[in-house]
Write a structure and sequence with these properties.
By secondary structure, this protein is α+β, with helices and mostly antiparallel strands. It has 2 domains: 1-30, no CATH class; 31-127, Beta Complex (Ferric Hydroxamate Uptake Protein, Chain A, domain 1), CATH 2.170.130. The protein has 4 helices and 5 strands, in the order H-E-H-H-E-E-E-H-E. The chain has a 5-stranded mixed beta sheet. The longest helix is centred in the N-terminal third of the chain and has 19 residues, at 2-20.
């Protein structure tokens, strides 16, 4: 009886493992929720990076921090090639054709990497190399 149960368990684990490799319909991998790749960008027809992110990963733009008044950081912080730009509004100034990828860091990751005032996270935009 024990061998039958162990064999059944192995069969179930093998089935789950085989099914777990496909990311969605047709076996296509699911896009990462923390990254927008060059391949995804090339499939889109938006003029600026704000519109791209708003369509593909709108959760990146939602504020997760309380309002601290005029001196506190509100919303996500945008970085372009490692340089801090500021609020999400700066994404409107970055043409989609100029970017290679975009990555989201949650509040804890962004605070650990860049310090305070990143409670809503950070969007790291990497430009295309000319």
């Amino acid at each position: 009886m024990i061998n039958l149960r162990a064999g059944s368990l192995i069969a179930v684990l093998a089935l789950v493992s085989a099914c777990g490799g496909s990311g969605g319909a047709g076996g296509a991998p699911r896009p990462s929720q923390d990254q927008i790749t060059a391949a995804e960008i090339q499939q889109q027809h938006f003029s600026n990076t704000y519109d791209l992110i708003s369509a593909l990963r709108p959760s990146w733009l939602r504020s997760r921090s309380p309002t601290f008044g005029t001196s506190g950081q509100i919303g996500v912080v945008v970085y372009l090639d490692g340089n801090r730009l500021g609020s999400a509004d700066y994404l409107r100034q970055i043409a989609v054709g100029q970017i290679e990828s975009a990555r989201y860091l949650n509040g804890a990751e962004a605070t650990s990497r860049y310090g305070t005032n990143h409670a809503s996270g950070a969007i790291l935009v990497t430009s295309r190399k000319q």
